[in-house]
Amino acid sequence: MSAGPPKIRIRGLVKSFGEKKVLDGIDLDIMQGTSLVVIGGSGSGKSVLVKCILNLLTPDAGTIEIDGENVLALPPRARRAVYAKVGMLFQNGALFDSLPVWENVAFGLLARHRVTRGEARLRAGEILAQVGLGPEVSRLFPAELSGGMQKRVALARAIAARPEMLFFDEPTTGLDPILGAVIDGLIVDCVKRLGSTALAITHDMSSAQHIGDEAAMLFEGRIVWRGPATSLLASGNPVVDQFTHGRREGPIKMELCGGM
Amino acid sequence: MTSLAAALAGIGRPVLTLCRTAGRVALFAVSGLSHLIRPPFHLRMFLRALVEMAYFSLPVVALTAIFTGMVLALQSYTGFARFSAQGAVASVVVLSVTRELGPVLAGLMVAGRVGAAMAAEIGTMRVTDQIDALATLSTDPMKYLVAPRLLGGILALPMLVVVADILGVLGGFIVSTTSLGFNPAAYLHSTFTYLETIDVVSGLVKAAVFGFLIALMGCYNGYMTRGGAEGVGAATTAAVVSASILILAFDYVLTGLFFSQ
Ligand SMILES: Nc1ncnc2c1ncn2[C@@H]1O[C@H](COP(=O)(O)OP(=O)(O)OP(=O)(O)O)[C@@H](O)[C@H]1O
Ligand SMILES: [Mg+2]
Asked: How many Å lie between the centroid of ligand 2 and the Cα of residue A243?
């Protein structure tokens, strides 16, 4: 791994909703130019973790350092500057449904860089082509797209402004296997070509091994295992083993009766 | 003793909640307004809000105003006949419409139409993470979603009320001259004889305040939405109800400010 301080460094992150402690002391480092895959059961707090890192939720305790600075303690202006360098793909896409596809994709470009709408539109077309969407899509509205197409538009929006840090919340869920592989390739490509640092959440083991340099398992509010993504299927950790092999017996208890 | 304490707590708790909400709304309003004087400005969003609030509300407000003017003429004619004061019809119509009914009825109609739509749109954006997405794209949601709507409301309602004033007077004129036997020229003459600038101006100021309240309630309730489609429904209802009540309350306060000696 590269030397120097980690790009993103999280210590003792705690987040509760009412009585329920979702994150219970997360420690996590992500090095510049690497990608980390976070896995964990449904409802284990993966999306909450990413939202805390992006300052969309305020943690109850802990620190989040980006480029060595604790973002939670920064004044608003400096914090905005830090978050101008991120791209995020939300789990449900979160496309702006009052704007056509091209404006969704170009939104960050228009907000951050002084580009004209014409230029932004051309750029949006190029990025849409990268995610396998033709020019006829760019004038449609999000409601007119299939779920998989929405996901690809959301991915295009996340990478459009060439951010230094990329966050993907389940980028390939709901896509067919071929398209899933294409998107995986695209994410790897972005990380390598742009030199971005990435954090991806996924439930798909092959996708995890493809995207991630490293992997971490979130369980009961903590990171219980961390290692190279290639060793996911042979981690030797009982929690990870149960999860990656989809076994019903093991330390992870699905509260099917209690939860309903 | 304990029952007294319980009774007091029963009064205190809602009062505290009300104060807390009022405080939050006030902070929200200040934050929204502060974005109007700090660049960047989202001109497109402002124009969209203005068109939505002013232009598309025109038919509703116009119909309301015309019928109100017509009813006013009819009511005051038959009512005033008891004192042989039918001559006052024109003045009653123009004063009621410009001072009171134009702004209040336009405000209530727009609250139902636009306040609800605002709360639903922003609430849906909240529950589908679109507001979070704005923040990750270097765009302040307060600046992008709330500030343009607040300004749109402040400007749209006075425009609508100018139209409502004219159409309200026209409604009274039509009824008076066609079925109540007034002479058109004499009716218009007495319409303008007792009309003062303050009557119209106070109505327009009220309208600006109502427009602000409608947009504020729509945005606030939308922005604070929790919990899926049900939450959006609740936010929509809350936006309309709270805006309507605030309009009537502020109407009283403003009337007091303008016309008490
Ligand atoms: N805004 C919120 N208010 C209250 N509780 C919340 C909120 N957001 C998340 N939670 C709770 O936090 C827990 C973790 O949610 P999260 O969305 O992070 O799960 P996840 O790991 O992303 O699951 P999935 O794989 O299904 O997306 C859930 O139990 C959820 O109920
Ligand atoms: Mg999730």
From this structure: 16
pLDDT-wise least confident of A202-216, A242-256, B162-176, B228-242: A242-256
Is residue B5 one of the residues assigned to a domain?
Answer: no
Domain membership flag for residue B156: yes
Q: What are phi and psi of A141, to 5 degrees?
A: -100, 155
Cβ < 6 A, ligand 1 pocket: A 17, 22, 40, 42-48, 91
Contact (CB, 8 A) for B152 and B249: no
| CB-facing half-sphere around the CA of B107: CA atoms within 13 A | 33
Position B23 in a domain: no
Assess contact for B213 and B247: CB atoms under 8 A.
Answer: yes
User: What rounded mean pLDDT belongs to chain A?
Assistant: 88
Question: What pLDDT sits at residue B87?
Answer: 83
Q: Which domain holds residue B149?
A: 42-259
Residue carrying structure tokens 């969704």: A104
A121 touches B at CB < 8 Å:
no
Pairing of strands A69-70, A61-66: antiparallel
Full-model pTM: 0.91
Where do the domains of chain A lie?
8-85+163-251, 101-156
CA distance B38 to chain A (A): 13
Closest CA to A150 of B211, B130, B22: B130
Interchain CB contacts (distance < 8 Å): A and B? 48
- A111 and B139 within 8 Å at the Cβ level: the answer is yes
Instruction: Give the residues across from A17 on adjacent strands.
Output: A20
Going by C-alpha positions, the residue among B243, B22, B216, B20 that lies closest to residue B122 is B216
| Number of separate domains in chain B | 1
Bridge partners (DSSP) of residue A15 are A23
Instruction: Check CB contact of A16 with chain B, cutoff 8 Å.
Output: no
Question: Looking at the complex, does the CB of residue B139 fall below 8 Å from at least one CB of chain A?
Answer: yes
The label of the residue with tokens 């609250």 reads: B111
Asked if residue B1 has pLDDT above 70, the reply is no
pLDDT at A217 over 50: yes
What distance in Å separates the CA atoms of residue B210 and residue B108, rounded to the nearest whole number?
9
pLDDT at residue B83 in the model:
85
Nearest chain B residue to A76 by CA distance is B140
| Within a domain: B16 | no
Alpha carbon of B93: minimum distance to chain A alpha carbons (Å) = 42
Q: What is the CATH number of domain A8-85+163-251?
A: 3.40.50.300
User: How do residues B46-100 score in pLDDT, each as one tens digit?
Assistant: 999 999 999 999 999 999 999 999 999 999 999 888 888 888 899 999 999 999 9
Contact A97 B130 (CB under 8 A): yes
